[in-house]
Amino acid sequence: MIDPADLYSLADDVPALDRPVLIQALTGFIDAGGGSRLAREHLLRSLDSRIIATFDVDSLLDYRARRPIMVFVRDHWESYEQPQLAVHLLTDEAGVPFLLLDGPEPDVSWERFVEAVRVLSDQLGVRVTVGLNAIPMAVPHTRPVGMTAHATRPELVADYPAWVDTVQVPASVGSLLEFRLGQAGRDAVGFAVNVPHYLSSTDYPAAALALIQSVSRLTGLQLPEEGLRLADEAVRAEIDAQIAQSAEVTTVVRGLEEQYDAYSGGQSRGDLMAGRTDLPTADELGAELERFLAAQPRPDGPPTG
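RE: above sequence
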């Protein structure tokens, strides 16, 4: 393997860091409701930050699979949205520094990239790496947001319930990073917020808020929440208003609530995609809600469907 350290460049003026947290929020994998993206954008917008390390994207991306955007104006190319994989240094509301890795998930050289992140983390003295994700689940938006948590040591996520037992899923760089860090004896945690699958294609601030809160609870970082809370209240009110227009859709949501309550009450030990046999399936519930919500006009434009 080519030296992983050749894959990134670290700034010369990085201050001394006291075992910082590294939040990993790469794009390109499942991100239901934009949970990870909204959380990442909220942190970068709300807190002081600067880039301290960049990765060689030319060695990691397939530009033909994810073509960057260029803007053409009349007779010339005006701009190019150059992809960037970077580590940002941020400071939380108590003045504690932490790190944020963001950018497109690499298309190639996964093992080399993961090793580069591990080497860089050692160089910066990272104490724990926390991955953010958001997955669609057959859950109602009227219940508390659930979280699927996993870690390289069980005690790191002992306070979180296990929503599933054993499943096979497509790999991601974030998952591989957590796995390899565990093999190397490093602490790493992953949080995947459970997003109502009928809202997975629209921005769902509640998902980002739950991710931010989970990171704060695990690491002790004081991360801002107010902007996400306000956005969540506005989106929730809009969703409730749309659903209230249809008795049929209201019944569908109640069906999801019954499945959720049965599971949470210990009446079912299956996953949240299972439930009473007299209720519609998760796919049927989601499809019906998606059709209804897509047909509703949004405040800033025509129906999305």
